[in-house]
Specification:
This protein has three domains: about 120 residues, Alpha-Beta Plaits (2-Layer Sandwich); about 100 residues, Chitinase A, domain 3 (Roll); about 170 residues, Trigger factor, domain 2, CATH 1.10.3120. A hairpin with a 4-residue loop joins strand 1 and strand 2. By secondary structure, the protein is an alpha+beta fold. It has 14 helices and eleven strands. About 15% of the residues are buried. The strands form three sheets. Strands 6, 7, 8, 9 and 10 form a five-stranded antiparallel beta sheet that branches. Strands 1-2-4-3 form a four-stranded antiparallel beta sheet, with helices on both faces. It has a two-stranded parallel ribbon with strand order 5-11.
């Protein structure tokens, strides 16, 4: 067997594999014998079919399978032993003149296109100074969070007349262009939260209503977009998009939320019994939790900023034409038009992946198995807490973690998550960083731009 690579340029090459009869004949004959033992054909006892019959009927497909196996192994071995950093996978080179006679095999020669990752040096920390944005947790944010807690643990009661913060339970009937009820049209029971209706005129119509009151109203003006309107009316999104008429709203019930008092009963429900003693310490705990909540978003914005800076600075070239060809060849659902629209983002993501891998390699960043188990247990414990369930004992949690990690896909996700976190930690510890506090509104704007 002969495997050679011919470089076209720094990013593209052709890999040639020559396979002689001696390379495949032994495994081919062995596969024929195994097939002979297993296959059943009318007129023959199992295991007693003549080899010539097996070879004539199944030989070409068995040989093709053996050649494919040898190709995969030899290509992978050559790439690994020669430390060739490829992108994607080798693609068989199209050759209209190539014909293979599987019935009369001899020596074979195959050619593959390969894309090669760019060579580059990464010197950190470098001269660039990176900004780390943090949300300034002020009284306004703390008050809003406490208000949300009070609502979450408040009580709903039925009232006679609607006000600007009530929930109106109603039936919605389809109307024609003259505001007449459409026979066999939709008739859906749903809810409108008056507090979240933005249109002032429509909101005014919803205030002061009583049970059994009937109102003709534009559904677009009391919902948050087409998906919300579709759910409210019990129709699909396409129909909601096309719907351009009013609806008949008939009030069935009005409910009012009375927020919970800011006392120890609420403090215990939010943070656990005895964790917080008074309003001042409750506010401090809320402030700390908001800090922790926003830090994840701060990290994402920081990492995005660093990735864009390094990608721009390093100016990495990719074997773009090869990668496009490989994506279309390996993803049957992808179209050329779709690829043309999305390729730039894909290329940017791939460049950052190459940079991350270089950071991991150069700085010997490792994720150990015990770290992955500990992280999985942490994630499981968080899920239990999220659903208000008691966290199991450590032994039971360890078994659950091992069960999760027995799934290769889940295991890979957690390993990737931990490598991402370690790369982020490395960047935060080694780059020149200027911390900047911003208001919540400015932070949201910043996050929406990333």
């Amino acid at each position: 067997m002969d495997v050679k690579i011919e470089n076209i340029d720094a990013l593209n090459a052709v890999l040639r594999v020559k396979i002689s009869n001696e390379d495949y004949n032994g495994s081919y004959e062995s596969s024929l014998k195994n097939y002979k033992k297993q296959v059943q054909l009318p007129g023959f006892r199992k295991g007693h079919i003549p080899t010539s019959v097996i070879k004539k009927k199944y030989g070409p497909s068995i040989l093709a399978e053996e050649i494919d196996k040898i190709l995969s192994q030899s290509i992978q071995k050559h790439i690994t032993e020669n430390e060739i950093n490829i992108l994607g996978n080798p693609l068989p080179k199209a050759d209209e003149n190539l014909t293979i006679d599987w019935k009369n095999p001899g020596d074979f020669e195959f050619e593959y296109e390969i894309g090669i990752a760019p060579e580059f040096e990464l010197k950190l920390p470098g001269r660039d100074k990176h900004t780390f944005h943090k949300v300034k947790v002020d009284d306004k944010l703390i008050d809003k969070q406490i208000e949300d807690f009070a609502k979450r643990y408040g009580k709903l009661s039925v009232v006679d007349e609607s006000s600007d913060k009530d929930m109106i339970m109603a039936s919605f009937k389809e109307l024609d262009k003259d505001d007449n009820v459409v026979e066999d049209g939709f008739n859906q029971s749903s809810t409108v939260s008056v507090e979240f209706v933005d249109d002032k005129k429509s909101k005014k119509k919803l205030i002061g209503l009583k049970s059994s009151d009937v109102l003709v109203i534009d559904p677009r003006k009391i919902s948050k977009g087409e998906a919300d309107m579709a759910a409210m009316l019990g129709i699909d999104k396409d129909r909601a998009t096309a719907y351009d008429r009013n609806v008949q709203l008939t009030v069935t019930e009005i409910k009012r939320l009375s927020p919970a008092n800011l006392d120890n009963a609420l403090f215990d429900k939010v943070f656990g019994k005895g964790e917080v003693d008074d309003l001042a310490s409750f506010r401090n705990r809320v402030s700390d939790d908001l800090d922790k909540m926003f830090i994840g978003d701060s990290d994402r914005i920081f990492k995005k900023h660093v990735s864009e800076t390094l990608i721009k600075k390093l100016k990495l070239d990719l074997p773009n034409e090869f990668l496009k060809k490989w994506i279309l060849a390996t993803n049957k659902e992808a179209t050329k038009d779709q690829l043309d629209k999305e390729y730039d983002e894909y290329a940017k993501s791939l460049k950052w992946q190459l940079i991350e891998n270089r950071i991991i390699k150069d700085n010997e960043i490792k994720v150990e198995s015990d770290e992955v188990v500990a992280k999985t247990k942490e994630l499981l414990a968080s899920q239990y807490s999220q659903y208000g369930m008691m966290i199991p004992a450590d032994e039971e949690l360890s078994k659950a973690a091992q069960n999760v990690l027995s799934n290769k896909e889940e295991s890979r996700k957690i390993f990737d998550m931990m490598y991402d976190q370690k790369v982020l930690t490395f960047l935060k510890e080694n780059l020149k960083i200027a911390e900047k506090q911003v208001s919540y509104d400015d932070f949201v704007k910043l996050a929406s731009q990333m």
